[in-house]
Fold each of these.
Amino acid sequence: MRIKLEKRAEPSRFMLFATPVAAVILTILIGAVLFQSLGYDGLGTVKEIFFTPILASYKWQDVATKAAPLILIALGLSLGNQAKVWNIGAEGQYIAGALAGALVAYFTPQVTSHWIIIPMILAGVLGGAAWAAIPAFLKTKLNVNEVLTSLMLVYVALQLLGYLVTGPWKDPNGHNFPQTAPFSDAQLLPHSIAGTVIPPGLVIAFGLMLVFWLVVSRSVYGFQVRVVGAAPSAARYAGFSANRTVWSTLLISGGMAGLAGILEATSQLGQLNLGFPSNYGFTAIIVSFLGRLHPVGVFIAGIVLAITYVGGQVAQTTVHVPSASGGIFQALMLFLILAGDVLVRYRLVFKS
Amino acid sequence: MTNMNRRNFIKTVSATIALPAMAAKSFGADTLKVGFAYLGPVGDFGWTWAHDKGRKFMVEQLGGNVIGDYVENVAEDASAVPVIRDLAQTGHNLIFTTSFGYMDQTLQVAKDFPKVMFEHCTGFKRADNVSTYNSRFHEGRSVLGTIAGMMTKTGTIGYLGSFKVPEVVMGVNAFALSALAVNPKVKVKLVMIDSWFDPAKEAAATETLANLGCDVITAHTDSPATLQVCEQKKLYGFGQGADMSKFAPNAHLTAIEDIWGPYYLSRAKAALDGSWKSTDTWWGFKEGSVVISPYNAALPKEVAAAADKIQAGWKDGSYNVFTGPIADQSGAEKVAKGVVMSDGDLSGIDWFVKGVEGA
Amino acid sequence: MTMDFIISVIITVVGISTPILLAATGEVIVEKSGVLNLGVEGMMLIGAITGFAVTFATLNPWLGVVAAASAGAAISMVFGVLVLSLGSNQVATGLALAILGIGLSTLIGTGFTGMIVPQFSSIFPSALSQDPFWRVIFGYSPLVYIALAMIFAVGWFLNKTRAGLVLRAVGENDLSAHSIGYSVIGIRYMAIAFGGAMAGIAGSYFSMVITPMWAERMTAGRGWIALALVVFAGWKAGRLVVGAYLFGALMTLELYAKASGFQFLPSQFWASMPYVMAIVVLAVISYRDRSGSEAPACLGKPFLPNS
């Protein structure tokens, strides 16, 4: 008997929804076997990584805190990915956004009004967008591959952060440690909305999810983005500008990453230091694919990924697996979701 | 998983929610759960590795009375908060956070868990339930400086640092001052590599220092790369954090060993018998937190004797490398004759002493 | 400045450049075939731990290098199956490979911390390898010569052989190559495996030559610099050597400047240079030659013959 792939006339809607779920379940199964065979408690590991963060209510805040930046970044990336604009430098835009917001904070330590948060956040969005404008410019003017330029710019942003926190922005009262002065009380957002476990970033992410959903499914712009991605020649025929799509998707995804960066800085860390970059920008790429590039899917996928982060930490103390295990589960999940894509577009045919 | 029914699910949820309270109860007064938050992986063979050795020592010594758990690779950002909180929530009564970058995060969590005892390594902010602790590595550095000053033939010694943070600056200064004390013509060439761990860059920096005439090179980074290059080039070096002689049997003159075990043991004992109080502890040679590894057989007797004398001086209090007069790189006097720098001055130090070149 | 001083500088530059060069030599073949594999860092780490572990077990560094190459090729096949046979997105799959490699190497390596392994001995007589002058040519680890031999082989392969022409054709226009009967998928599988093997050897250079030991993430981001190098070199084998040594020279000169006490620009400026230069070069070659830039036309695009 031979198994053959046969192209479907229409992508399977069932598979579109079923494969992400199957990918998560398969990740759990494969992970259990892998860790068991490596001499760890396989079942215990998957239990701690995937279920403890859901079942233990005191972990919900941590999950929500991790999920917020992932969702924010992935919402923007998904829009670009629909247009086949591959921004993989969100990590750099996340840092650039935080730096731009911190720049406002740096010049306004004496301001006591909480309204200072607004220009900080706006600066964050602009900073992220500006960092993404470089690949957009190079792509539209010179046809330079945006995958490479956006990736390279991540490392430039990292060095810029390193320079600022060890140099001009170093906290004069910080015992010479590489970090900025703490933001003032006025410049801080609370860790979570009063009386709840929900960080402000997650509320904003939820609101923006609705906006993105509306834009993608109802607006001409959303249609344009999809057409440019799916059928570039048809898009040209319809008069949709590919360049404008490149610009807009990169600026939006950069701005979203920048927003995530400044929100993280002002509501969670309260300053910038060398430890600020947390790979959210890269993990958000997994979120975007796991969420099937759909805003609602991205929201759910962001929470799933956040669970693996939190669970990975839990598993270290309870079943004593190394911290790298969380990453292994994340990579497995992405591999499986990508492999599952094939079932959306093709069907398996069994021939004897 | 799919056939888990609703009632079961609710039962599980409520059982798990109740977990923190139950966990705290299920361990009697004679069992202590100790949690550690580590910066690097336990396999870094450097900073985190040394702390983990201390954790193991504590567990061994106290037998069944203590459980020691850890979380490794904890980023020095907001995500340290949930990690530390998780340790507190899962019934750890004594929690060590082992990097400077966890300072505010430790205090933030400690506020929510007044009954849990916290210990933050290398920080300077304390609370009723937050102690700070560190080791006087600079005591060890002054022994290495003495040896280097006597062993160098070129009169130029290399020093490879990570970042210009007080702990590193203190080490450089202690090293340079003690080397100058035995060899007034000595120069210390300093290179900061902007990383705690990057073996390739550490190796290149060591080769650079060697090429600039350094024949004894010490490092304040986390890998044995410097030693391995010294071995290859037939120069002398020192181990950092642990006895690294097996990586470089000829080059390795001695090493500063970070020994956290006795401190962890004493704090766990204090937690067990209820005598734990918030303090600031800065142990050195005397308390066994800083230990000098066995000397290389190639070390001449008089050098070994001079090194022993420095160590003995620290132990009985007759020696302190930071005794004035001390001038900075520009030659300006920073510490007057006969004055000993206070711990407070040291913990914020950001200038290098005269005799140090580069930065 | 004496000759001895200059020779020592050269030796440092070559040492720090070689792993980047090794990994980039593999990646250039992968990208020339039209595939973008961003997982270099992960494959390097898999190579680093495998090379170390096998050398530890067999006490033979040569077996270690062979094992590192095999492991790099093997893990690259996970990527290969996904992007070639299942047509998945190359960017995301490559990233997943990087994450997997970092995690898996850590998991495998837990037992090897603090161990030591025998090192390569020089392939030249010590009269040459330790001669104050001739060491500039003969004084390196065997892997340095392997790196140089491979880059010459790859240059020759790409430009002078029929198989190289076919590989480039597959990367420039996969549909045409397919229609005249070449196996696009088969050729790309081989290219990816080669890239994985070279990344594996590059990784072993860290755990067996620079610092013969295992430590987690010991490659410290060199996989990403290798990706920048391929771009910087404009996908040309000859320029890879120049670029690798230039990147290495930049880092080395910065160290010299620091140790000598003068520093005109912050070190972060120098550390970001490889990436900035890669972007600039990319922009320049695209500007100069908009139609036929050296970037393989199919880079990163899935091959879907029946769509």
Amino acid sequence: MVFWPVMTTPAVPMARPLTPALPAAGRSLPITGQVIPSFPLVGSHFALGFGWALAGAVGLVWLAPQLATGSFLDPRVLALTHLCTLGFLTTVITGVLYQVFPAMLGIGERSRPVAWAALGLHALGTALLAGGLLLGQRYLQSAGWSVLFVAVFGTAWNLLPQRRRAPRNRQLGLYVSYAHIGFGCAMLVAGVRIGDALGWWTTPRLGLISAHLHLGLAGFVTMTAFGLGSRMIPMFYGSPTPIPARLDTWMPRLLGTAVLVYATGAVLGAAPLAWAGTTLMATAGALFCWLGLGWFRTRARRALDPATGLLTLALASLAAAIPLGLTAAALGPRRPGVLVAYVLALLLGWAGALVLGVSFRVLPTLTWHHRFATRMGRPGTPAMPAMLHRGLGITAAVAGALGLLVLVPGVAAGSAPAARAGAALFTLAITATILHHLRMLLIGRARPAASGTLP
Amino acid sequence: MTHDLALHPGMTVGTVAELHPATLPVFTRHGIDLCCGSRRSLEFVALAHGLDLAGLLTELEAARAG
């Protein structure tokens, strides 16, 4: 059985001496493998993404009463949603992809300048769109949409064709390709909505918004998360149970079909079609939760660390989002609070906690390699575990869990104080995460660390 | 290409985990990441994590032998 197909390493030196031949101080160790991810590129995506996350978290506290009343069509709530989805989630996910393609598929992006340009345009487009929504300026929204379209097209051009040339793990690339189809469809629907707002045509507003939301959150974010998560979550848990090959093949098809069927039903106002899509989406979500439960049960270390704690929170949130989504679909706009609670569980609980958890595992390793790999052996060089700050990590995981536990039921019940308290706790989780990651940039700068240093 | 199945310090973390799946919990216990540092050799990650290389190899061998 091939256990970790993602980990195939092409070149293994066979005749290495058994005595550790340590590199001379200050000399870079070679990395076996052909494509090296760019730390500045990946790190900049994370930095910008977490900047958006902080802005979104502050907005969450500010708009908690609106969320509790279920005012999901409030322009400020729409702006906040896009800060979280386009700003936070999409930026970080894109950064992870620029790391994962070389590391797991064995092939990098087509053009690094295009990657940088897409990052800049994505940030500009997000700011314009969120600003346009906040201020009610439709032309600003249109400008933001156009800039985002170019940015997303740039990223897709840069990464998706590489799947066919990848020496390994093309199935993961397929998830990413399907996810970008979902993203493209979400943008198309958004463009139709903006055209409606500009008076070019008339469209069913709620149906389009619901289709847009699910194409983005399920079609893009969850599709990517299923692909990456089915590799990363068992790896981070240390579980010996990979995703079954057959399920790995069918999962993107199931979720992709589910989202397209739902979106078509929502846009056309065809309830049976929308319900068929809803049922399929719930099935895909339940299957992934079942996989997640297996990974959790077979984890190597019983005690959870901040990363695995947040990943567990993400899986629990996905499990909670399924009945919430079905309830919201049954009740419709009569109970907008349930609808908003469902979106929060999916957006902040599932996708948000997953991204935070991955960042706690991936960023310390990447940052250490970038900053200290060439200094290994020098006095004062911190060991890799010194990159982790347990207090900040635990604060992020606990505050995130408590925040969601208070926020989601609070919003569903229409309680503004509970919603605000939950939002404040979730903001604390984001802040602790950002402080943790900023600290990694400061370690070893001023003076050698007193403990945790290499000999 | 053929891989030498015996563990040695020059093997990459990714290769060890791929050839000997039972070693995965050992890496997890020590916080050795298979996503971003899998192309580094065992001797590199031992030094980076402040671990005793011989001890790590012993643990990996024990896990491999199962």
